[in-house]
Amino acid sequence: MREASFVRQNKEKWIGFEKALNNNVNINPDDLASYYIQLTNDLSYAQTYYPGSKTLLYLNSLASQAHQKIYITKRESKNKIISFWRDEFPLFFRQYHSILLYAFLIFMSAVIIGVVSTLNDDSFVRLILGDSYVNMTIENIENGEPMAVYKSGSRMGSFLGITINNIRVAIIAFALGVFFSVGTIYVLFSNGIMLGSFISFFYTYGILEKTSTVWLHGTIEISVIVIAGCAGLVMGNSFLFPKTYSRRVAFTKGAKDGLKIVVSTIPFFIIAGFIEGFITRYGQQMPWFISYGIIFISLFIIVYYYIAYPILLHKAQSIQNSNLNHS
Predict the structure, then answer these.
(1) FRET label pair with 304: which of 39, 41, 133, 171, CA 20 to 30 Å apart?
(2) Are 44 and 108 in the same domain?
(3) For 73, phi and psi rounded to 5 degrees?
(4) Which residues of 80-101 are buried (b: 16+ CB within 10 A; e: fewer)?
(5) Are 273 and 142 within one domain?
(6) What is the pTM for the complete model shown?
(7) CA–CA separation, 119 and 123 (whole Å)
(8) Are residues 129 and 159 both part of a single domain?
């Protein structure tokens, strides 16, 4: 590529980045890192094909400014843990809302398949949930305790076992994204079919309302599995669709971003495990308003933190940056 064409193709991006640095605009650290990676890629290209050019000198200078900005941002972070959960992660996750939507649609498609298949074929639920679970549940239904399985075991033992298992599922959903997202799609699909079969199974016995006990912990648990699936798709799609990066750089970035999303789910899995270990066993004895109150609050927390709050925070930052640019 001729130097003039190279400059013309990237000029607007460089100028925009330079203005952001010189005007001291508060840039999201993840966006700053992304811009810096693109800039260093351009710098490497210029070093190879345009040695000694003014373009190379300009990019060297811009890369140096960006490096200083990143270094200062790291030094000014007084409480990394609090800032990560309050500001850094929500702003970072805003860019992946579309992938979260895809993960949700994949999961819900599987739920619908599970529902329809179970309603039209009595043997399907046994194929998905297993004979032992189905037989045990039928026995519990006949004994008037359809959710007796959640009363078994110690509270602490159930809490720890369930939490560890849920985190394991999340890590698997993320890790299998390395197979070009296909592995993650499989995890989302299989869990969705299981949920659809489970719901339809109770519906066929006329006790669908009893599943509200499961949703005490399941609201967070199922939601966060979808979010972990989003993490896997972020990693897998980064290799399939590298955009302006090389595939190696894109995959490295996607893997780091996906891992950050998985880490964000761990506290929610702990909460879900606590509810299942200590509260779900009393679900049938709870007044309905307490039971549905827990479900509603759980859903609100997930939707607010992963969807609404990132949007609000992003809008607030955009307004702040716009004001800085015009001041």
Answers:
(1) 171
(2) no
(3) -60, -40
(4) eeeebeeebbbbbbbbbeebbe
(5) yes
(6) 0.77
(7) 10
(8) yes
| Domain span at 299 | 95-316
* Cβ neighbours of 17 (radius 10 Å): 19
Q: CB burial class (10 A; 0-12, 13-18, 19+) of residue 291?
A: buried
Contacts of 140 (CB under 8 A, 6+ apart): 146, 147, 148, 149
Structure tokens at 92: 């970072």
Average pLDDT for runs of 10 along the chain of length 327: 85 81 65 77 84 84 75 56 88 95 98 97 94 93 86 83 92 94 96 96 90 92 96 95 83 94 95 93 88 96 97 86 60
For 181, phi then psi, to 5°, come to: 75, -10
d(CA 203, CA 258): 36
Q: Provide the number of structural domains found in the chain.
A: 2
14: in domain: yes
